[in-house]
């Protein structure tokens, strides 16, 4: 067992996006592709003597091979210890939890989140820092800049580690601890929520369906919902993580979790439905014949946070990404706490959480979380809702409708145009940006523009500025249309159009969402020329 220095050729495209480096599996399978990226990361991080690294992924195709390669590189870089989840498994929130709990200097998470897996699917790698959250852009940009000039990597030539047996082994001077991927996370959840009340709820016959979508949350949901909380066996479906997610798209939205939505809409619907994504950080909440938007979920949790023991003292503030609806802003105002608006990407919440400025965070993209870690957390959101249902004795629909009656309803929808031509997408955005200066005061359909800009965020903690984070057109009545290009796709470009309309009148709270937003949908087409630029007459996904 020795450390080898291997000559390599740089790959030009190793620039992380919204959430790490995501590429097709075949790209990652190129010689030294992963080794180059990880070596660039380690070189950028510098000395790691005595430090601990956390390592695991969502179990998708290439996960195991990547874990073994990273262990060999980590040993050569001089890490003292690596904590790796059994089977190479760690959900994104569990990795964040383990990093924090064990004082690791950081962690490597192998995931392309909700993107399809398998040999023809996607793979991804991201680095989280010592606070448990995604690396800031300054770090990921530095890694990329280093990667373009990399000419060698260093790795031990040690044989593969047995990832399926708990316990310790060594590679060179480094200890490899294969840990239970669920235990630390489950303990953290037990401290935040009233497990006794939720157990009593299930004991009273409350029914639930949790769809793990053949991705990483299966083992976590089984252990916590069916094990610790006594939900009947079969509550968790698609519970075994598969390398290709069973050919499904593990993205918990009404389109990709269609069978759960159909179940919840039917005569035999259980009381509560939920799903999570590939790496376990996203959540979808569904009531009996009632879908909850992620933006509303954040607002409802913020308004009722004190039902959960972990939040009994109240929340310090809320943060949401700019395109997320402003429902949470109204709750924050009522509670007398600040509401921060950040660019899309969980990493932007990190400083606010570290500085104690906010307790809850959420995004329209089915992400919700809190200061209990530095990632969004799918199962946490589900447990929070269970705690709320147990404490209130009300249904999901009743809770949300009462919320609307009190705060008003923010009708909300996102229209995605996926895999469109990148150049055409860039032209659309450029043309839109060029028009922004003249839009304020203009009449668009039934709306009058109050503000039109390209969202620019100045981090209130460290002053970092993030520009061009999405074009927003805000109307005088508070309605909004937001345009941005996705930073997580791997094929062409994805245009996201976010639509939001505020309605105070409870008599108007029960319209079909697309109908309620029809005027704004027309404005979006008119102002951006979507069909002309993209060649698409309709969005590919509506959530
Ligand atoms: C990931 C990130 C989120 C982000 C979402 C959508 O899940 O962690 O923070 O909201 O992707 O990002 P996109 O750039 O594709 O809109
Ligand atoms: Zn995810």
What does this structure look like?
This protein has 543 residues and is of the alpha/beta class. The protein contains 18 helices and 27 strands. The strands form six sheets. A seven-stranded mixed β-sheet has the order 2-6-5-3-4-9-8, with helices on both faces. A seven-stranded antiparallel β-sheet has the order 20-21-24-25-26-19-27. It has a five-stranded mixed β-sheet with strand order 11-10-12-13-14, with helices on both faces. It starts with a strand and ends with a strand. The chain binds 6-O-phosphono-alpha-D-glucopyranose (G6P) and zinc ion. Residues 18-19, 113, 321, 344-346, 363, 365, 367, 486-488, 496 line the site of 6-O-phosphono-alpha-D-glucopyranose. It is an enzyme of class 5 (isomerase). Pfam families: PGM1_C_vert_fung, PGM_PMM_I, PGM_PMM_II, PGM_PMM_III.
Secondary structure: elements and pairs:
Blueprint: E1 3-7, E2 21-24, H1 25-28, H2 33-45, E3 52-57, H3 63-77, E4 81-89, H4 92-101, E5 106-110, E6 122-129, H5 137-147, E7 152-156, E8 167-171, E9 174-179, H6 183-192, H7 195-203, E10 208-211, H8 217-228, E11 236-237, H9 258-265, E12 272-276, E13 283-287, E14 290-291, H10 294-304, E15 318-321, H11 327-335, E16 339-342, H12 350-354, E17 360-363, E18 367-370, H13 378-392, H14 396-407, E19 409-420, H15 422-435, E20 443-444, E21 447-454, E22 457-458, E23 465-466, E24 471-475, E25 480-485, E26 493-503, H16 513-516, H17 518-528, H18 530-534, E27 541-542
Parallel strand pairs: 3-4, 3-5, 4-9, 10-11, 10-12, 15-16, 15-17
Antiparallel strand pairs: 1-7, 2-6, 5-6, 8-9, 12-13, 13-14, 17-18, 19-26, 19-27, 20-21, 21-24, 22-23, 24-25, 25-26
Helix pairs in contact: 2-3, 2-5, 7-13, 10-11
The structure holds 6-O-phosphono-alpha-D-glucopyranose and zinc ion (ZN).
6-O-phosphono-alpha-D-glucopyranose binds next to loops.
């Amino acid at each position: 067992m020795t450390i080898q220095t291997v000559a390599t050729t740089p790959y030009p495209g190793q620039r992380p996006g919204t959430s790490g480096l995501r590429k097709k599996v075949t790209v990652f399978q190129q010689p030294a592709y992963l080794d180059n990226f990880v070596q660039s990361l380690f070189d950028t991080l510098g000395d790691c003597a005595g430090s601990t690294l956390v390592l695991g992924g969502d179990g998708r195709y290439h996960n195991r091979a990547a874990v073994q390669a990273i262990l060999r590189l980590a040993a050569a870089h001089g890490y003292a210890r690596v904590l790796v989840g059994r089977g190479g498994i760690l959900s994104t929130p569990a990795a964040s939890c383990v990093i924090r709990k064990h004082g690791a200097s950081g962690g490597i998470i192998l995931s392309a989140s909700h993107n399809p897996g398998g040999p023809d699917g996607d793979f991804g790698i991201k680095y989280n820092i010592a606070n448990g959250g995604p690396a800031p852009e300054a770090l990921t940009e530095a890694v990329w800049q280093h990667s373009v000039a990399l000419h060698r990597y260093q790795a031990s030539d040690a044989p593969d580690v047995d990832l399926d047996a708990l316990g310790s082994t060594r590679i060179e001077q480094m200890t490899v601890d294969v840990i239970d991927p669920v235990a630390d996370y489950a303990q953290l959840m037990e401290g935040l929520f009233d497990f006794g009340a939720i157990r009593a709820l299930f004991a009273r016959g409350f029914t639930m369906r949790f769809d793990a979508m053949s991705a990483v949350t299966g083992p976590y949901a089984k252990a916590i919902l069916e094990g610790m909380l006594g939900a009947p066996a079969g509550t968790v479906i698609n519970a075994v993580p598969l390398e290709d997610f069973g050919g499904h798209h593990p993205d918990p939205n009404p389109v990709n979790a269609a069978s759960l939505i159909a179940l919840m809409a039917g005569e035999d619907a259980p009381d509560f439905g939920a799903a999570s994504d590939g790496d376990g950080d996203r959540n979808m909440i569904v009531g009996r014949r009632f879908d909850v938007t992620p933006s509303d979920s954040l607002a409802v949790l913020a308004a009722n946070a004190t039902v959960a023991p972990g939040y009994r003292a109240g929340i310090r503030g809320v943060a949401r990404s700019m395109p997320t609806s402003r429902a949470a802003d109204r709750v924050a105002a009522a509670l007398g706490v600040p509401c921060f608006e950040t660019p899309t990407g969980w990493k932007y919440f990190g400083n606010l959480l570290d500085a104690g400025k906010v307790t809850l965070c959420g995004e329209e993209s089915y992400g919700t979380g809190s200061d209990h870690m530095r990632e969004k957390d799918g199962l946490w959101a589900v447990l929070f809702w269970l705690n709320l249902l147990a404490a209130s004795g009300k249904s999901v629909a009743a809770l949300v409708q009462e919320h609307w009656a009190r705060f008003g309803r923010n009708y909300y929808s996102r229209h995605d145009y996926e895999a469109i031509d990148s150049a055409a997408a860039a032209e659309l955005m450029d043309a839109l940006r060029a028009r922004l200066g003249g839009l304020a005061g203009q009449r668009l359909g039934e709306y009058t523009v109050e503000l039109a800009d390209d969202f620019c965020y100045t981090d209130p903690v460290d002053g970092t500025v993030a520009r061009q984070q999405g074009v927003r057109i805000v109307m005088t009545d508070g309605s909004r249309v937001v345009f941005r290009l996705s930073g997580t796709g791997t094929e062409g470009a994805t245009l996201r159009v976010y639509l939001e309309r505020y309605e105070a009148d409870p008599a108007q709270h029960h319209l079909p969402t697309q109908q309620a937003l029809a005027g704004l949908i027309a404005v979006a087409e008119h102002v951006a020329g979507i069909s002309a630029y993209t060649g698409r007459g309709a969005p590919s996904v509506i959530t």
